[in-house]
């Protein structure tokens, strides 16, 4: 009897060791030489110490028709759950040392198992991608397995936060799982994502382009908008994921964790009274305002290198997570263009899905004019942002800092699309358009006929500015709930958030709306 027991334990020990060995020491060394951590090392850095509970370490790969003799225990992906600052998360981490982290049937079943559990218990899913894609030896079984993951990504969307870390290759149809998730982190120089790689590009378009240029972290963080965050290495990436998780609720049924940063709710900032330049054509940095109002000046910016004319990100007010959407006058005068509309629209929808109050800081001269934007679909893209703000039922507060012109004023979370509270600074200019454009339209004939057209234009601009380029007309109509002293912005926002805490909205019955995608 005793002999039997020890044999069983030895079997378990042997199987566990085989699973831990993964692709063997040579491949582990090769992984480290590339500056990449091993799948398990990544999990250890991501989770609180000693909290990882692994599933399916002994699940074997299926093998395949082509040279599929060897099977691997664990099948190239480590899956399970653990905690981040005490809150449960589910994780899968692909192991490049096993068949290049390629996705076979067993590998995918392991991922699906943790995704299903995450939705059941209401906890975030964090995926670490480092894979050569569909396992060639498993053919259609591998392809079908991707479909199973995509299906779960979509079912989990808006139910639990989904975060992807791209820490190696991610190519072909495999890119569509991360791209459905809420946030994509990419590690500089060691990760890439593309639907078709450089060699196919060369064959089809005769263009020479490196993997890095085509689908590296920088390309996706600045050009395509696929990556929300880029980080220099694996260690910093996992630290940033922990930071992000701290702002988010575990699921759409829960509230965000409260973190008291010991920043007084009645703290004012007199410097804000002088933030907006007297000359309204001059730029300033909206980040100064953002940092001033948030608890501890802490702000986690999303998509910081993409569509920099709008700023999106998470911060805290009175300990509570808020989502900020702010025009950035320091970049393209803060105009709304295609990319900015897409970026902010998606961010707003994330916040709404996960009960995160939205605050917009408005200084917007309008939508970007020109054939590039029109033909690129500014009508469709602008409509996304309009739709996203309008359908959001979380607490919505808007602060008009300076320009709020035309359609862009309406779109940026105005009272007219039912934001809950709309505040304005005395420097706000709420009008159909800027003074120059307006004077040129209204007084075109007089200006053309004048002896000194420039002088008359300036005079008419001044008249227009005095009549319209201020918040007081809108305040008289009740479209602005209060014109506030800039220094008191934080105080007003915290009080207003407290008031809106119990907000409930009954939406009309429907399957789902039809956002112009
Ligand atoms: C099976 C794979 C594999 C794959 C890599 N390997 N990709 N095995 N299926 N898809 C294996 C290699 O045979 C090798 O095994 C080990 O992983 C490491 O690969 P290397 O090529 O030595 O590494 P490296 O030089 O770093 O190159 C990595 C790579 C390259 C760029 C990812 O391996 C590659 O191009 N792989 C094929 C990528 C691909 O075309 N995948 C299909 C994409 S389409 P050994 O035993 O030598 O260690 C797709 C469709 C999804 O994924 C559809 C969803 C709907």
UniProtKB/TrEMBL annotation:
One cellular-component annotation, GO: acetyl-CoA carboxylase complex
Protein name: Propionyl-CoA carboxylase beta chain
Ranges where the CoA carboxyltransferase C-terminal domain occurs: 267-499
InterPro entries: AccD/PCCB, AcCoA_carboxyl_beta, ClpP/crotonase-like_dom_sf, COA_CT_C, COA_CT_N
Keywords: Transferase
UniProt-listed Pfam families: Carboxyl_trans
Any single GO BP term: carbon fixation
SUPFAM superfamilies: ClpP/crotonase
Keyword Transferase on entry: yes
GO molecular function: acetyl-CoA carboxylase activity; propionyl-CoA carboxylase activity; transferase activity
Domain CoA carboxyltransferase N-terminal: 5-260
Family, similarity comment: Belongs to the AccD/PCCB family.
């Amino acid at each position: 009897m005793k002999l039997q027991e020890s044999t069983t334990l030895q079997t378990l020990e042997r199987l566990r060791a085989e699973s831990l060995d993964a692709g063997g020491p040579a491949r582990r060394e090769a992984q480290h030489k590339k500056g990449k951590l091993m799948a398990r090392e990544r999990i250890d850095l991501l989770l609180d110490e000693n909290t990882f509970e692994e599933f399916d370490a002994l699940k074997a790969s299926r093998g395949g028709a082509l040279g599929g003799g060897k099977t691997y225990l664990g099948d190239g992906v480590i899956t399970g759950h653990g905690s981040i600052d005490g809150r449960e998360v589910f994780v899968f981490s692909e192991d490049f040392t096993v068949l290049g982290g390629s996705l076979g049937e067993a590998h995918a079943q392991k991922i699906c198992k943790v995704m299903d559990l995450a939705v059941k218990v209401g906890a975030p899913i964090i995926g670490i991608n480092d894979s050569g894609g569909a396992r060639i030896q498993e053919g259609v079984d591998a392809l079908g397995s991707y479909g199973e993951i995509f299906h779960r990504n979509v079912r989990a969307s808006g139910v639990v936060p989904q975060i992807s870390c791209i820490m190696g290759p991610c190519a072909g149809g495999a890119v569509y799982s991360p791209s459905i998730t809420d946030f994509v982190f990419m590690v500089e120089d060691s990760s890439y994502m593309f639907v078709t790689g450089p060699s196919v590009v060369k064959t089809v378009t005769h263009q020479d382009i490196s993997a890095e240029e085509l689908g590296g972290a920088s390309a996706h963080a600045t050009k395509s908008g696929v990556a929300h965050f880029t980080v220099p290495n694996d260690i910093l990436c996992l630290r940033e994921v922990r930071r992000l998780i701290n702002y988010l609720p575990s699921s759409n049924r829960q509230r965000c964790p409260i973190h008291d940063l010991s920043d007084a709710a009645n703290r004012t900032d007199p410097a804000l009274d002088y933030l907006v330049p007297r000359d309204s054509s001059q730029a300033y940095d909206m980040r100064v305002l953002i940092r001033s109002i948030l608890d501890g000046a802490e702000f986690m910016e999303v998509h910081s290198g993409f569509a920099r004319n709008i700023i999106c990100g998470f911060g805290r007010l009175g300990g509570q997570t808020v989502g900020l959407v702010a025009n950035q006058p320091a970049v393209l005068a803060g105009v709304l263009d295609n990319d900015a509309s897409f970026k902010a629209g998606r961010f707003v929808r994330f916040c709404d899905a996960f009960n995160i109050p939205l605050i917009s800081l408005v200084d917007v001269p309008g939508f970007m004019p020109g054939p590039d934007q029109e033909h690129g679909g500014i009508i469709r893209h602008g409509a996304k942002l309009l739709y996203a703000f309008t359908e959001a039922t979380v607490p919505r507060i808007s602060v008009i800092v300076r320009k709020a012109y035309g359609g862009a004023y309406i779109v940026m979370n105005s009272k007219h699309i039912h934001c809950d509270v709309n505040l304005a600074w005395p420097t706000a200019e709420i009008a159909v358009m800027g003074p120059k454009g307006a004077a040129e339209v209204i007084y075109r004939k007089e200006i053309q006929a004048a002896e000194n057209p420039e002088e008359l234009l300036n005079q008419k601009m001044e008249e227009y500015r005095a009549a319209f380029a201020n918040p007081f007309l809108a305040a008289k109509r009740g479209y602005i709930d209060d014109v506030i002293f800039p220094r008191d912005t934080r105080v007003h926002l915290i009080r207003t958030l407290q008031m809106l805490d119990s907000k409930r909205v009954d939406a009309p019955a429907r399957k789902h709306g039809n956002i112009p995608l």
